[in-house]
Structure formats: C-alpha cells, structure tokens
C-alpha cells in the first residue's frame, strides 16, 4: 500500500521504475492525456502537501480563505489507512448530495492544484467528505450566531451567486436578514431596520410573517413620529405614500392612522389657503394650496383649488444659480443680467432664433426690409402700434437713437454702426430709411440697442418690458407684471426668481415642485433629468463660450509666450470631461481653440465663425514649464537692456463668478497650474450677479460669454473697449477687416482669420464651450422650443395641473 505519508519517501525508489498502476493503495493514478511517469506523482504531491494535500493530521482552519480560492471538497482519510487529507475539485454527486450508504470500490478525484491528473481512493478508507457548500453554510451560520453580519455576508453572497438552488440557502438568507434586522433594532437604527425587514418580506413573505409585520408596523410608527417632530414632512409623506402602496391596512394597521393624520393636516392647510385667497393674498394662498396637495395628494378638492388660484394669480417660480444684481439684456458675459433684462427691458432688435445665415432678429416696432444690393435698410412701423409703455414711441424718436449711435460724442456710440451707416431719414411717420456705406449681411445685428427708461421717462430704470422688479427677499427676487394684456390671459402675474445654493439642490427643488423652472443646468444634470417623467429639458440653441480673460497689468500675463504656456499647462479635456460632464458625452460640449462657438454638431451652420483647422493646444505641462523659463529669460534680457529690475513673479489671481461650473473649473485649473511649481494661484470669488472683478483685485477672470452673433460680438469681446480690452494690432486689423465684409463668404473667411489670429496672439485663453440647458415641470406650458433666452415666450406661459 502507498499511503500519503509514504509518497514522498518512496520518490527515490520510484524514480527508476516504469509506470505501474498503484492498485495496492488507496490512491490510484489515472493518466489523462499523454503518459506521465509514476515517479512524477510523489514529487508533485510532496511539493503541494502544505496547501492542498496532507500526509497526516488535519488541514488548517479555513475561514476567510474559503473566499480566496476556487471551490473544492475536502476528503479525510481514516487513521487505519495511515490518515491524511486532500482538497479535491467538487465531486459530481447527483444533486451534490453524499451517498446514503458507503459505495463499494473506488472514488476518482482530482486534487486541487494538480491539473490533468486523476487519483482513486477506496471508499472504505474515507472517513469524511466535507462538501464546499456545506462549509460555506457553516461559516455563514457561525458568523450570524456571533453577530458578525458583515463577515457572514460574503460567504452567503458566494452561495447566492454560485449555488442559487442550494436547499439550505433560502433558510440561511432569511435567518440572516431577521437577525441583522434585530441587531439594528437594538441600536435604534430605525431606517436600516425597516429596510432589512422589508427586504426579508420581499424575499420570503411566509418567513415568520406575524413577527416581521409587527416589527415593520412598530418601526414605521417610530419613523413617522420622529419625522414630524423634525418637521420633515416631505420624507414623512414619501414614506406614507410608499407603505400605503406596498401593504394592506390589515398587514400594517398604522397606515390608516397616519393617512387620517396627514389628511387632517392637508385640510388645515387647504382651509388656510382658501382664507388667503378670499383676502386676495394670492402669494400665500398659492403656497398653502400647494403645501396641502404635497402633504396629502388625495386631499379632496386639492387640485381644483390650486388650479383656481393659478387662474386668479398665475405665478411661476424660477430656480436660478445666480441672482441678478445688474439688469442689462445686452451683456455678453453676465448670464443673470441678461436673463433678468429680458423681463424688465426691451431691445430695438431682439434675437428670436438662429438660421443658416446667422441670427434671426425682430424689430420691436414692426418689421424690416433690405434692398437687393444690401445698401438700404428700412424700418417699417406696425400700423397696430406697440403695447404700452412703448406705444408712444414714434419713428422720429427711433431715428434720433440711431443717429446718436453713429455719433462719437454720444454715450450710445457704436463704432461698427458708425462705420456702416451713411445716412438716416424718416420717410414717413411709419418708416425709417437707413443708407449704408457698403453692403452689410446683417444690419439688424448692429442695432441691438437697449431700450431703457429714458425712451419713455426721465428715469433710465423705468421698465420698458412686461415686468418690473418688485421686492428682494431673503433668497428670492420678485418681478411683477406691469400691465395685463387681454391677448395673454394666462401670462404669469408674477415671476419669482429663487436663489439655489448649488446645482444639485436646484435639481432636487425642481423635482420636489419647490420651483417650476430652472434657468440653467449643470451639463451632467441635464442628461440625468432627461429620463425624468416629471420634468422636461430643453437646450438653448447657442452654446456658451468659456475662457480666461486677462484683466490686470500683471507683467507676466502681458507676455504672449507666458499666456501660451498657461494654455499648455491646463488639461482642458480632462476638466471638461471629468469635472463638468462627469464622464458623460454631451453633444456640442468640447474644448475650443478660439473665441467663437463651434456649433453643437458637425457641419452646424451656427458654427460658421469657428475655424476647424485651428486645433486646440494639447495638455503638455513640460512644454508649459519650458515656455515659462524662456519667457523669464526674455523678460530678464529686456530688463537688463532697459537697466530696470526684473519684474517679480507674484501670485496669479483668478476671479470666479458665483456659479457652479465656474467654481469647479477654476479650482481644477488652480490645481493644475500649481503643479508647475512656478507661481502660486489665488481664487477671487466675485459677489453674486457680478461677472467682472474690480480693478486691481484679479489678474484673470473666468468668463462664460454668450457669443450669439460672432460678426458683431467679435468686437464686443476682443476690441479695445470689449471684455478683453485687446490693444493687439493684429487683432485690431482682423476686427476692421471683418467689419468691411460685403457678403457672408467674406464674413466667414475673415472670422476664420480672426480666430487664427486670436489663437496666435491669445488676447483671451479659450477653454471650452458648453451647451446650456433649461428644465421645467410638466405643469408649465408655453415655454416653447429652440428659445434663445428663457423668458423669450413668457407672455405665453401658463400653469396647467
């Protein structure tokens, strides 16, 4: 007989023997595949004995090691057969159950770690066979009994994954959930206990049904009481709504109690709403009626009351990430100023859409006509007039404003219009004729004049739009309708802009119904919200262009080489994709190489100004550092020639508006620039509503610009009096050439040239463009599609539950 203990000692004796079947011991080797000499068995087994094979004694305790190896059964040999043990691949017993009686003959096995070799053991020499699943179940039970639920779960999880039909698994899992729930119950962790017991209920509704339902009922009572004490009505209502749908009152008796209590609370709010309505306190009535419906959605008459109040006093709450402290519908760089400006003021020409040949503009007082040679531009006033308060403005007053815009001494002076217009004449009380020096492709874009209060009064703050600012409360700004229009009976009487702490909170507020509309979404949030059934998401057709603009006399930022180094030092693709888009792919969001938008899709006509041949500079921090060293040597050489001191490298201060996207982006930019270890970076936070820092407080400012019509906005961004305040001669030449373009081909070609010049001279540091989105609840109707600005169709808004 060859026992486990003899295999190693007989290795030398067998090494010279030819292969013989080992019939006289309890192990028999069966060669699989090519012939293998018997002498190889002892060597192999001896080498593996500490792990998968033992000549005597018992294997080490397994425990957590069971999770770190492949499945195996354990065979123990009787002492009468010289003992030992072996880990073998799972045995192919029918149903994985051991034979009830000991079979005759031999059991063929494969020892773990010895692939391709088969061994035989006499059934009569086997003391015990411990199956893989039995050991997993045993380890699970022992840990459950000791209260180690975290330790028990991995063993049970392996069984759930690999042995889902195991007879003991269901009982094991149910017992685990019950005892784990009891453990959390003793710690007064009510939410965790409820979640575990409900999982047990779903897994096996028949397992100790009475006990489980009794505890669920008790815990729901406790949770509801604690939520009401904390004034957390929202989560209490959610819990009540869920359990009312998941259980019958006969199963959870407390459902009826809490439904009755919440109904009473809702009816109390409803009564207060009716009282406020009768006093014509519609703001309070609206809030109370919606609170009543939110507390108990099935409160009798709840929906009807909300509809009635909305009809009497339509009010829309708009969530905003930046409140407007300045109201100006013409600003390129200030989103909240432009947004609020659309409510309060009008413009002589307003952009209402985009087409294949630039923006589509509407004349405030009628319509326009341009001659075939593009040298005459006529403004025709509507015979029906304009609604108040602009109804008294006539052609002569508009002509005076156009003339002032062409006069250098006027505060309304615009060099682009002045260089384009030859003469202005009022040909009739309802028509103005503008003669142009040269053909212009889109003269309306030159006349986006802010129609402020001076057009109708002595006070420039007098509203000319549909709304006026009312009051600024703690976290909201109210705009009230100046005059009702019978053609728009459902137009909101009041638009309330509600400040949101951050993008995540704004989305939650929209889903909860605390606000009806969000004016601007974090890009990744927009993609997530598209799957919601409660809200709709729309995209503004024109992307915003994000950039860093130098705004100080910092000596290093004045150097083009240094600015180029900054671009190479910022991993723009990583910040855009990883931080702002959160790994999602959003069409139209991309890194850019110049100051103009590239459109939202390939061959988008809206990207006519973007030069695709100018590729964005890649992230190359080593090159960035080399360029900075080169720049420093150049500056040192210049200083020595002028016999001046070398300018000191002071911290670079980056101003950031009170905006989520800007804050996240600038923090990432700061981290990457400081990796160069050349200069410190400081972040300057701008007050809410402000887009540009005060003089001397920052060196760069993060700007998200609305470049809606590049042929006109190029000067507003890059010109000497624009945001960048560029004095660069090449940039100036590019702007002048653009303004003399006679047709769309020349406009496009010269914008492409200006793009290339900007990429070389870097008056601004281009980052990326983002496609901006808005969202609104399904109850808000009339917002429209492809709107350029949020309040474009505010007259048509209505609430419909």
Automatic annotation (TrEMBL):
GO terms for biological process: peptide transport. Signal peptide: none annotated. This is Bacterial extracellular solute-binding proteins, family 5 Middle. Residues 418-674 form the Solute-binding protein family domain. It holds the Pfam family SBP_bac_5. InterPro entries: SBP_5, SBP_5_dom. GO terms for molecular function: peptide transmembrane transporter activity.
